[in-house]
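It is worth pausing here to work through a concrete case rather than discussing structure prediction in the abstract. The textbook approach is simple: state the sequence, then state the predicted structure, then interpret. We follow exactly that order.
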Amino acid sequence: VITLGVGENAHVKALNKHTGETVWTGGGTEIAGYATPTLLTLEGKPQLLVFTGTALISISPIDGTLNWRHPWKTRYDVNAGSPLKIDDNHVWIASGYRSGCALLKLDGNTVTEVWKEKKITPHWSSGALIDGHIYVTTPPGYLVCVEAKTGLEKWRSKGTARGFEHGGLIAIDDTLIVMEGNTGSVVQVAVSTEAYTELGRINPLDSAKSWVAPVVSNKKLLVRSPKELVCLDLEL
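Step two, the predicted structure:
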């Protein structure tokens, strides 16, 4: 079990899932971020990418050795969205509070920013990569499509104060299922680089807020708010 920790060189801890015993600690001594540690294969080797409060770090999942550290400072040290793998040596990261997003290029333990954009600032929702394009929500109420390798924004939905906001999303069966963070609506959007095309929407929640990404399992769609959990049947 990989989890965040505290203490000297113990930002990340590996625990024996049967006993809870600490297997290794690593990642340096930093203030913790909010994102879940993400296991990715980059440049042909497994790496744990972890957002601290002030940086993105890569550590070995075998023994916790720090591979590299890329500074990423945000207001209140809130780095909450999971890194998104673009290909074997490119990773996309994003944070809220007007921090923006960036495409990182890996060359061994050297990390450089290919591009950076301040107009896309997902607070904690993670993006979806489809055919070289990133789909992600960003305040105050937009869903955007951006070309991963160049940072070119292809389209942006019409945002309002009661729009997508901090809502999460998933990609499934050539469509996006996106939560409107400020209304609790579940919105189906076509996967397209040409324009924002809404296919339908429902609001199964009593609460008018949902910042959690939807989940699909066994042809069931799970959505939740701070007060409720709803399971929807996706079969016709």
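Step three, interpretation. The radius of gyration is 18 Å. The CA atoms of residues 221 and 232 lie 5 Å apart.
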